[in-house]
Amino acid sequence: MTPALPAPRTPGRYRIALVCLGNICRSPMADVVLSERVAAAGLGASVEVVSAGTGDWHVGEPMDERAAVLLTKEGYDASAHRARQVDPAWLTDNDLLLAMDRQNLRDLRALGGAGAGADPERVRLFGDFDPREPGAEVPDPYYGGDDGFAEVLAMVERTADALVAALRDRT
């Protein structure tokens, strides 16, 4: 069963931020897939999806070529992505921040410092919504081969479907 989404901060709008380390593999893949699934479900006018990294190494760069090639091959448009770094304001500007792994989750929760709004209901693991492996981390495919990117895409697609179903119930 998919966990419940926290209430929107602004009625009629829902904002989801997807976060990994450098914003060139996992979170942009999830951003592209979830954004397209949201649009296909007719929720594009009320749901916004963004992504960023906890680190600043790749700011301004396109998605990792291996991720972009796989997404394109599977019918997604990965061309617009440019990496950016998460901002502490995202803790209060977004309804839900989803980290790709537990280290990203710790980094997000520490981002604003003590008492700065890292609400555990709103700052969660992306894998918490994975219907097959609830609570799973999305593995970082950066240092591996193409199989790692395919594994990430499979996790992202099934989790994006579960998120869209939860968004439909929420809106």
Structural description of this entry:
The structure is a single chain. Strands 2-1-3-4 form a four-stranded parallel beta sheet. It has 171 residues and is of the alpha/beta class. 37% of the residues lie in helices and 12% in strands. The protein has a single domain (14-170), classed as Rossmann fold, CATH 3.40.50.2300. The two termini are 18 Å apart. It has helices at residues 26-40, 65-73, 90-93, 102-111, 146-170, and strands at residues 14-20, 47-53, 96-99, 123-125. α1 crosses α5 (146-170).
Question: How do the strands line up in the largest sheet?
Answer: 2-1-3-4
Helix share bin: 25-40%
Number of E strands = 4
Major β-sheet annotation: 4 strands, parallel
% residues in beta strands: 5-15%
Concise account of the structure shown:
The chain is an alpha/beta fold and 171 residues long. The protein is built from five helices and four strands; from the N terminus they run βαβααβαβα. It has a four-stranded parallel sheet.
Keywords:
single chain; 5 helices; alpha/beta; four-stranded parallel beta sheet; 171 residues; Rossmann fold
